[in-house]
Structure formats: C-alpha cells, structure tokens
C-alpha cells in the first residue's frame, strides 16, 4: 500500500492493443502522440519533422494521407520512422488500403464515414492482413447529421453514440484492435463525453482537447481537460493539440504526465516564480536550462530557487538543487545535501554538466541491474 494514498491514480481497466510495437491500454504506460504538419508528399521534410518529434519523446506519430500521392510518399516515411505511424486517411477508404500496405501501424478512420459496408469490410481486411490497429476519432465539430438532428447540438451523449456506432461496424467484422477518441474544443463537453464512454466500452481511449489553441492558452486548456481525466484514471494515450510545432505538443504532453506521476521521462524542473529576494535571474536561468537539457531522457529532478527561503526545502527533494546566495555565489545541492558553491558566470554550464553526469550514472546503473 502506498504511504501517500492521496497521490494514487487508479487507472481504468482497459484491454490492450498494439500500435506497431507499442502497447496501448491495459497496464502499458500512457503514450504521447503528435501529428506532422508538413506536406506528406514532401517525404524528406516529413521525416525531418518526425525525427524532431522522436527526439522529444513521441511514442506514436500521426501523418495525414489525404490523396494517393501522400500514401505513395508514406511508404518511404514509414520505413524511416523509429516509432509507429498512424495514417490519417480522412474519408477516402482507398487511402486506408494504400496506407495499410505502405507500413501504417494504425489507421485513423471512422468506418461509418467511408460509405458502404463492403468498403468497411475491405478496410478491416487490409488492417488484419497488415497488422494495423484502427483509431476511431469522433469530433464534436463533425458529428453526423442525424445525431445533430436528434440531440439538437453537440453533447456528450451524441459523441458517445457516434463512437458506439463506429465501434459496432468494426465488431460486426470481428475486428477488435481499435482505440477511440471523443474530442471537442470545449473542455466540459470533452471531459463529460470521455467519462461516459469510459463506462460504456473496454477499449483503450485516446484523449485530446481538439483545437486547444496557441502554446500558452492551449497548454492550459489541455492540462485542465486531460489532467482531470488522467487524474480520474481515464486515458491510455494522449495528444495535446496546439497551434505550435509538433515537438512542442510532445513536450507539453510529457509535462502533463510527469505532473501526475504517470511518466518520468527527462528533467523535471522545480523553480520559483522569482521575486526581489532572488540571488540570480531565475526566469532566464530556467529558460536556458530547459533548452540545454531537452536531450536528457533519464528521469531527473532539478530545483532552481532564487533565494534561501524555500530553496533548501525544495533542494532536499530533488536530485540536483540550486539556490541563490549573496555576492554572486550560489549553493548547489546533490541528492538533497549541500555540496558546494558556484559563481554566477559558471552556473548554467555547471548545472548542465551535473545533470548530464547524473543521467549517465543512472543509465549505467540501469544497464548493470
């Protein structure tokens, strides 16, 4: 039993599917996804963007395949990617067939939107033959006309009914390797829909607050929506939808999971908002450290506090700590213990060096275990 039960998150029980080599659902780690925004027909540019997302930690990446030229380029892109790719084929079922053959690990498709039952059957056959999962993506902005007429407006019940209708089409063909999303840009609508869907199905759920907005506003909105669901144990894979570069979506996604103790990738910085007591420029220091430490994948905690009011207490709880002192000399803590002082001009390089050294030690210990 946890000594801190108030921090325990009891995840919803879901069955597990595979997206390529990545497990989704069950007791697998909650995965972080993003989507490329380069023209898919430009394979080189798309691969370069995928590399940046992979380096940021993306577990799964979605690529749009709206036309035949895109699915032709997708084959080269899929071969180059180090993580599984989801092919978003919009409404054209032939793109799904092409993408499945071209190496997609998952197809983003709503089976009720591609036409006849035979088309659904063709897509299912292609998915089974190629080991593809399917992601059903219901969106409040594109609900079926009959559901809008029935409910009068997008509402949780309408989103869930749409999802269940799509699920049934796959189950009718004995296909069960699917995950489902019921996204909306309205936080209340999305959260309520996911809560209802979580009670109605046992498949993995893909979380997202769609069209969340720009970097700051979208991060806040996504953290509220996704955070409340994750805290309640709902969600097996997430995408933070920002008007920002895809690798930024990945970093925000990991920060949300790290804040809830659900993933531990990279450096977690604990820092103060700064005030007149600060012994160094906290804001600029944290900005530089965040940029310089993006390459670290090992989970490490770093505290950066401008003065000695809260600094020692926070530093005792982190792997490496820095607190502001007088006369341009600041205290460095290692494993919660005061260790040595560092001057202003050497501070950034010194902390980066300490973090890199600590990461290397932890990686070596993990390999030896």
UniProtKB/TrEMBL annotation:
<feature type="domain" description="IspG C-terminal">
    <location>
        <begin position="269"/>
        <end position="357"/>
    </location>
</feature>
<feature type="binding site">
    <location>
        <position position="307"/>
    </location>
    <ligand>
        <name>[4Fe-4S] cluster</name>
    </ligand>
</feature>
<keyword id="KW-0414">Isoprene biosynthesis</keyword>
<dbReference type="GO" id="GO:0016114">
    <property type="term" value="P:terpenoid biosynthetic process"/>
</dbReference>
<feature type="binding site">
    <location>
        <position position="314"/>
    </location>
    <ligand>
        <name>[4Fe-4S] cluster</name>
    </ligand>
</feature>
<protein>
    <recommendedName>
        <fullName>4-hydroxy-3-methylbut-2-en-1-yl diphosphate synthase (flavodoxin)</fullName>
        <ecNumber>1.17.7.3</ecNumber>
    </recommendedName>
</protein>
<dbReference type="GO" id="GO:0051539">
    <property type="term" value="F:4 iron, 4 sulfur cluster binding"/>
</dbReference>
<comment type="function">
    <text>Converts 2C-methyl-D-erythritol 2,4-cyclodiphosphate (ME-2,4cPP) into 1-hydroxy-2-methyl-2-(E)-butenyl 4-diphosphate.</text>
</comment>
<keyword id="KW-0479">Metal-binding</keyword>
<feature type="domain" description="IspG TIM-barrel">
    <location>
        <begin position="14"/>
        <end position="253"/>
    </location>
</feature>
<dbReference type="InterPro" id="IPR016425">
    <property type="entry name" value="IspG_bac"/>
</dbReference>
<dbReference type="InterPro" id="IPR058578">
    <property type="entry name" value="IspG_TIM"/>
</dbReference>
<comment type="similarity">
    <text>Belongs to the IspG family.</text>
</comment>
<keyword id="KW-0004">4Fe-4S</keyword>
<feature type="binding site">
    <location>
        <position position="275"/>
    </location>
    <ligand>
        <name>[4Fe-4S] cluster</name>
    </ligand>
</feature>
<dbReference type="InterPro" id="IPR058579">
    <property type="entry name" value="IspG_C"/>
</dbReference>
<keyword id="KW-0560">Oxidoreductase</keyword>
<dbReference type="Pfam" id="PF04551">
    <property type="entry name" value="GcpE"/>
</dbReference>
<dbReference type="InterPro" id="IPR045854">
    <property type="entry name" value="NO2/SO3_Rdtase_4Fe4S_sf"/>
</dbReference>
<feature type="binding site">
    <location>
        <position position="272"/>
    </location>
    <ligand>
        <name>[4Fe-4S] cluster</name>
    </ligand>
</feature>
<dbReference type="GO" id="GO:0046429">
    <property type="term" value="F:4-hydroxy-3-methylbut-2-en-1-yl diphosphate synthase activity (ferredoxin)"/>
</dbReference>
<dbReference type="GO" id="GO:0019288">
    <property type="term" value="P:isopentenyl diphosphate biosynthetic process, methylerythritol 4-phosphate pathway"/>
</dbReference>
<dbReference type="InterPro" id="IPR011005">
    <property type="entry name" value="Dihydropteroate_synth-like_sf"/>
</dbReference>
<keyword id="KW-0408">Iron</keyword>
<comment type="pathway">
    <text>Isoprenoid biosynthesis; isopentenyl diphosphate biosynthesis via DXP pathway; isopentenyl diphosphate from 1-deoxy-D-xylulose 5-phosphate: step 5/6.</text>
</comment>
<dbReference type="Pfam" id="PF26540">
    <property type="entry name" value="GcpE_C"/>
</dbReference>
<dbReference type="GO" id="GO:0005506">
    <property type="term" value="F:iron ion binding"/>
</dbReference>
<dbReference type="InterPro" id="IPR004588">
    <property type="entry name" value="IspG_bac-typ"/>
</dbReference>
<keyword id="KW-0411">Iron-sulfur</keyword>
<dbReference type="GO" id="GO:0141197">
    <property type="term" value="F:4-hydroxy-3-methylbut-2-enyl-diphosphate synthase activity (flavodoxin)"/>
</dbReference>
């Amino acid at each position: 039993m946890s000594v801190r039960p108030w921090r325990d998150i009891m995840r919803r029980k879901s069955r597990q599917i595979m997206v390529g080599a990545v497990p989704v659902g069950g007791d697998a780690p909650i995965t972080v996804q993003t989507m490329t925004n380069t023209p898919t027909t430009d394979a080189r540019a798309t691969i370069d963007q995928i590399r940046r997302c992979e380096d940021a930690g993306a577990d799964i990446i979605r690529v749009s395949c709206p036309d035949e030229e895109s699915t032709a380029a997708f084959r080269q892109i899929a071969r180059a990617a180090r993580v599984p790719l989801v092919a978003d084929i919009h409404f054209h079922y032939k793109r799904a067939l092409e993408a499945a053959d071209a190496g997609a690990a998952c197809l983003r498709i709503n089976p009720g939107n591609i036409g006849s039952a035979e088309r659904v059957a063709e897509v299912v056959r292609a998915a089974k033959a190629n080991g593809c999962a399917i992601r059903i993506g219901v969106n409040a902005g594109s609900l079926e006309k009959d559901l809008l007429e029935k409910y009068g407006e997008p509402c949780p019940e309408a989103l869930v009914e749409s999802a269940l209708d799509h699920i049934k089409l796959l189950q009718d063909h004995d296909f069960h390797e699917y995950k489902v999303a019921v996204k909306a840009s309205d936080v209340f609508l999305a959260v309520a829909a996911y809560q209802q869907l979580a009670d109605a199905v046992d498949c993995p759920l893909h979380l997202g607050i769609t069209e969340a907005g720009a970097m700051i506003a979208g991060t806040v909105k996504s953290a509220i929506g996704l955070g409340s669901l994750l805290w309640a144990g709902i969600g097996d894979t997430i995408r933070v939808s920002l008007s920002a570069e895809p690798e930024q979506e990945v970093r925000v996604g990991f920060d949300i999971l790290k804040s809830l103790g659900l993933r531990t990738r990279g450096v977690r910085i604990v820092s103060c908002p700064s005030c007149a007591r600060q012994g160094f420029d906290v804001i600029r220091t944290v900005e530089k450290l965040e940029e310089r430490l993006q390459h670290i994948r090992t989970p490490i905690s770093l505290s950066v506090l401008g003065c000695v009011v809260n600094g020692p207490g926070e530093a005792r709880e982190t792997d490496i700590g820095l607190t502001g002192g007088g006369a341009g000399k600041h205290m460095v803590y290692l494993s919660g213990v005061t260790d040595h002082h560092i001057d202003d001009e050497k501070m950034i390089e010194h902390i980066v060096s300490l973090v890199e050294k600590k990461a290397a030690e932890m990686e070596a210990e993990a390999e030896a275990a």
